[in-house]
Design a protein that fits this description.
It is a single chain. The protein is α/β, with parallel strands linked by helices. The protein folds into two domains: about 1-170, VC0802-like, CATH 3.30.2130; about 175-350, Rossmann fold. It is about 30% helix and about 30% strand. It contains ten helices and 15 strands. It has helices at about 15-25, 50-60, 75-85, 125-135, 170-175, 190-200, 220-225, 240-250, 290-305, 320-330; strands at about 1-5, 30-35, 40-45, 60-70, 95-105, 140, 150-155, 160-170, 210, 230-235, 255-260, 270-275, 305-315, 330-340, 345-350. The protein has an eight-stranded mixed beta sheet with strand order 2-3-1-4-8-7-5-6. Helix 1 packs across helix 6 (about 190-200) and helix 3 (about 75-85) packs parallel to helix 4. The protein is elongated and about 70 Å long. It binds S-adenosylmethionine. S-adenosylmethionine binds near residues 261, 262, 286 and 289. S-adenosylmethionine binds near residues 214, 237, 262, 263 and 286.
Length: about 350
Amino acid sequence: MQICFELSGEHRTLPTAEACAALRAEAIEYHQVAEQPGVLIVEICDGGVGRLGLVAERLAMTHAIHRVITTTPTAAEEIIETISGADLSEFIDADQTYSVRVKFARNPWDRESSKSFGFSHRLLPKLEAGIGGVVGSYGSRADLGMPDVPFKLLLTPGIGIFTTILHTVDRSSFELRKPQNKPFFYPGVLMPRVARALVNLAEVRRGDILLDPFCGTGGILVEAGLLGVRVIGSDVQERIAKGAGMNLGYYMGDYALIYQDAADLSLRNGSVDAVVTDPPYGRSARITGKGSNKLVADALSEIHRVLKEKKKAVILYNKPLLDLLLHTGFLIVECHVQRVHRSLNRYIHLVEKP
Ligand SMILES: C[S@@+](CC[C@H](N)C(=O)[O-])C[C@H]1O[C@@H](n2cnc3c(N)ncnc32)[C@H](O)[C@@H]1O
């Protein structure tokens, strides 16, 4: 069965990487069929469909997960012709209600995808009505408010993707958890959607142990804990570790916080399933004990030591750490770059302990 992720355009590569990692974390076998601006299509086995709700619950950078009915050319007449030729009886019964929405799926990072589609937004209601007419011919009734079957056509520069929406991602909950709304706040922390995407990249499952040895206000730990992951955080500043405790206590009952140096962790070898961390860059975040290069090198050795074999770590930094990560013994899986502002890029390294 073909599944389509309607991606948020907030980053060039992270939404796709997050969606694929979440499928792996929920043990849904997939292969990638196509990637269009703002859209990822994968083939999954029918057995995985029941677990897609769990994938939707964990994602931060996806708007919705759809089932693909058919793909179409992008000219209006050809769209109606293609959808008329598709057998929709598998998707809707005469006693069910439906809605039809058409959306231009774009990735703002991709110039091509921002070009015109050959017809304007003003034609979308007409197209929705035309597709509605095809769906209505199965005897069903339109209901734009609470339809039983929400149909959607995602228009990308190359193809139209006609779908039914299986799961919508509730992205508003991330807004509620923005750093300023938490009991303990200091500036320069990760936004919850980014933190959740990083946790997903590490492919953690419910009950796993995730460590953040530079936990700051605990933003990464909160996002992991809300997925049912057991979290351990540590920070060298006692005041900050206490603040992280206030934030974690606000969202969950169970967590461990240690006041310690990331270069000397009091954890056993091979004792954690994932590490996601954002060490200080030697700019605003306080670095205790040593310079940032030495601290990061020592902390990476410790992270490698405490991580189980075949498990993943996500390490952020303000410059690429590829040589250092390889030297420490990690395999590099992916590297994403996030522009924070004019003079700060975050390098997001996804690595595995072989
Ligand atoms: C960039 S901040 C982490 C922000 C965090 N991701 C958040 O969302 O709040 C880096 C943190 O590393 C801590 N830190 C600095 N040196 C440390 C060390 N040697 N060991 C552990 N933590 C350290 C700082 O106190 C700071 O809280």
